[in-house]
């Protein structure tokens, strides 16, 4: 610890002065320094202090000692053009946040719905029960207990049986996409949905993969476009596409699976909000249809809290082998503490109860949103498949996407349109707002609608 | 939740039977299904159950309804060649761990030295104090309080002033290297130390960057090789190179900085175990010399626990701007809970006290290791710069690296040689064991030496 103890300060000031003189060119390479005794007398410090300073300068290579001769300045030929002291970095500050009264873009579940008392009780339990085991290195795939609970949960909620050994826990979806690119290779062509989450496209691109766009229609990603794409990997959200809300029908799913089998391609099934099928039962996953070609990805960001950077994927057997080859020596990046707590939450039934409460809540909010849209004084065409936490609203009479967003922003409402998620404009998706009600509180939908009736 | 409630079971069995028949080809595309009433009578269930099953099949696209006509099987042309039910994935099991009595390769600090009672008390405090704030999304750079504490700590421990705004917290060093590649580009040439940590080379390579090797000598990475390398990024551990233990002298550091300035290159300063300079004071960081060209990276894996996947980097101003452009919409992957706890640990002085205790401990272990090496019945040349948690031991009389490792393994000692970290063999580094004593308990060094004296 530099600067703290006062006699360390003395050594450090002396060390700094000499170093600055060397860096500033006052002391030249080869020049002899005063003996320790002479320097001590000169600087008014003890010989020990000088010795400590000299030793530090030797360790850092500023000076060297010659036996029975003394201390010499090292050759710093390239130092002259450096500033003697690096300029203080200017403060870049913290970025300003948004300032909308209502957010229909990035909504996350209201914090008051989170079972915080249960969560903190489980955390305390984990802390007492696991104790110092929490300090152990987490195996690359994640904690075995959590993977077991996730497998059970997938069986109960999605009706698929998976081997917990092939589940990989990671720090959120984008982190997992990075692993997928490393497993499958950057030289592969990754097909993503258009319109789609820009984050997915940029995650693959940032990891160096090439991307192709697959147009999404009323039946989700177009299977014939997939067949023509030349892609090696297809990333789809079959049960509730973002942002269109489309569901890929069974026949198209099977066609994609056949494509994957024939081509040796993989399908990344992005099941990001399948927990929230509000009308009817959950839709069958593609993983259940074809576990050998489907990489299933889901996270707890929507279902628990966005700060919970935890997601998982289920790998086909061949990719699992490759994963272990590449990563078995790496530690898992999600803290064991969070993994154990989540395992206790799922195992104790709290997670599914929480999902149940959230669904009840969102069913009510969805009804409010539908009623609010119906109350607007202009024609609205609602696109809603009864799933997930968003729906679309086409305002046929609006002149443009920009107009919709400006009118909304003027009323304090942050909103995006389908066009914001498209690689290039398509008439069928024009003038269509994406209404993400994941972050709406009860009553807010009516409040927002009232702003537009004035 | 499928399967749970008994009348959901009825609906689900019916739905499954129909689905299997469609997938198996018993029901053909265009075929009309019995009316709800007829199906109910046939299957011995209620009309509501049939309706629920039909709705699910419609939602998933297996069947469709024609108004005033009834329900029809969708066209599943491509289904015939799919197995009706996906085969159960075979269990791949959990991999077996190593079985050495002594580990001189990947040692992490003995768990009993970790101030677990302090850590768990701070966790409990954070849980009570922060409450539901812990559920908030963590900004891309990490928690501001933690970044502030890290900046203060860098000032106290490394003598450098950094703006906390330019600190980025991430899930361990390899995770941060991935961000560095995305900031600087995969098209750049990354120079890494040879011998060096294979993890560093593979992290850059896995993210798609090209790598060049810079030979490491007694004075660390060779600056003239850096100048000739054509590299755009230089990754070095100047204060204690792994595995050689070399320290880059000041003149060479300045030469590398001049190279970086002239070329517009960046230096990644990997300060992975700078806390553990056991003899003398900490060596000055390159960041302090040139904050505009140096990306400083450090983690808490060595100083706290390997399960603590938390590291940070300090970015130059230009890269910081680029980081915010690329990542300001991404959430930080380290849970806020861990970040707040670590901030409390540093802010309360516990972290530095812990480092102090670890240093005292490791000084004793290092003395034991040196004594143990001196007690061996064959010539040993020790390479030790008094820093970090490893040193090298050259056994000039050994016939090969393989011999050293086999003899050690036969005695239950896991050890690696410098050659294991080299891109190609170099005579100067032959027959040299790397002794990582980070995981040794007191007394173990003598026990190990005794095994070789028998």
Termini Cα gap of chain A: 64 Å
The percentage of residues in β strands of chain A lies in: 5-15%
Structural class of chain A: alpha/beta
Mean pLDDT of chain A: 86
Radius of gyration of chain A: 30 Å
How many β-strand runs of chain A? 16
Low-confidence stretches of chain A: 1-6, 79-97
**Largest beta sheet of chain A, briefly?**
8 strands, mixed
> Helix count of chain A, per DSSP?
15
Strand order of the largest sheet of chain A: 4-11-10-9-8-5-6-7
Largest interface, counted by CB within 8 Å of the partner chain's CB: A-B, 119 and 117 residues
Query: Could you estimate the helical fraction of the residues of chain A in percent?
Result: 40-55%
Silhouette of chain A: elongated
Oligomer: homodimer
What does this structure look like?
- The structure is a homodimer.
- The first copy, chain A, has about 450 residues and is α/β, with parallel strands linked by helices.
- The first copy, chain A, is about 40% helix and about 15% strand.
- Chain A has helices spanning about 5-25, 35-45, 45-60, 115-130, 145-160, 175-185, 200-205, 225-230, 250-265, 285-290, 315-325, 335-345, 350-375, 400-410, 445-454; strands spanning about 65, 70-75, 100-105, 165-170, 190-195, 210-215, 220, 235, 265-270, 295-300, 310-315, 380-385, 390-395, 415, 415, 430-435.
- In chain A, the strands form 4 sheets. Chain A has an 8-stranded mixed beta sheet with strand order 4-11-10-9-8-5-6-7, sandwiched between helices. In chain A, strands 12-13-16-15 form a 4-stranded antiparallel beta sheet, with helices on one face.
- In chain A, helix 9 (about 250-265) links the parallel strand 8 (about 235) and strand 9 (about 265-270).
- In chain A, helix 4 crosses helix 12 and helix 6 (about 175-185) packs across helix 7.
């Amino acid at each position: 610890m530099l600067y703290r103890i006062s006699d360390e300060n003395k050594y450090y000031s002396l060390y700094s002065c000499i170093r600055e003189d060397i860096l500033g060119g006052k002391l030249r390479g080869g020049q002899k320094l005063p003996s320790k005794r002479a320097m001590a007398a000169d600087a008014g410090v003890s010989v020990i202090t000088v010795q400590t300073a000299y030793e530090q300068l030797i360790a850092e290579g500023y000076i060297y000692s010659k036996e029975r001769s003394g201390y010499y300045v090292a050759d710093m030929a390239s130092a002259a053009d450096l500033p003697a002291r690096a300029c203080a970095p200017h403060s870049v500050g913290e970025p300003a946040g948004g300032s909308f009264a209502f957010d229909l873009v990035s909504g996350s579940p209201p914090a008051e719905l989170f079972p915080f008392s249960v969560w903190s009780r489980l955390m305390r339990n984990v802390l007492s029960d696991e104790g110092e085991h929490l300090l152990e290195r987490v195996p690359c795939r994640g904690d075995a207990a959590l993977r077991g609970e996730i497998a059970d949960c997938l069986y109960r909620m999605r009706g698929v049986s998976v081997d917990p050994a092939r589940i990989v826990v990671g720090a959120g979806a984008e982190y997992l996409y990075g692993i997928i690119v490393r497993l499958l290779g950057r030289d592969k062509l990754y097909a993503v949905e258009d319109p789609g989450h820009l984050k997915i496209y940029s995650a693959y691109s940032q990891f160096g993969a090439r991307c192709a766009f697959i147009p999404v229609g009323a039946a989700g990603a177009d299977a014939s476009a997939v067949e023509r794409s030349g892609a090696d990997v297809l990333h789809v959200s079959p049960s509730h596409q973002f942002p269109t809300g489309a569901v890929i029908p069974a026949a198209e799913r099977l066609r994609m699976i056949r494509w994957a089998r024939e081509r040796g391609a993989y399908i990344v099934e992005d099941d990001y909000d399948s927990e929230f099928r509000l009308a009817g039962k959950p839709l069958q996953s593609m993983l259940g249809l074809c576990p050998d070609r489907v990489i299933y990805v889901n996270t707890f960001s929507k279902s628990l809290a966005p700060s919970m950077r935890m997601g998982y994927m289920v790998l086909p057997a061949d990719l699992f082998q490759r994963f272990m080859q590449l990563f078995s020596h790496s530690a898992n990046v999600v803290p064991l503490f969070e993994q154990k707590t989540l395992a206790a939450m799922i195992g104790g039934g709290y997670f599914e109860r929480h999902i149940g409460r959230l669904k009840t809540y969102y069913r009510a909010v969805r009804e409010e949103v539908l009623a609010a849209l119906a109350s607007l004084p202009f024609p609205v065409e609602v696109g809603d498949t009864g799933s997930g936490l968003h729906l679309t609203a086409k305002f046929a009479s609006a002149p443009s996407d920009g107009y919709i967003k400006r009118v909304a922003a003027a009323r304090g409402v942050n909103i995006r349109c389908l066009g914001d998620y498209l690689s290039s404009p398509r008439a069928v998706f024009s003038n269509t707002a994406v209404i993400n009600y994941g972050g709406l509180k009860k009553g807010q939908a009516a409040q927002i609608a009232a702003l537009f009736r004035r």
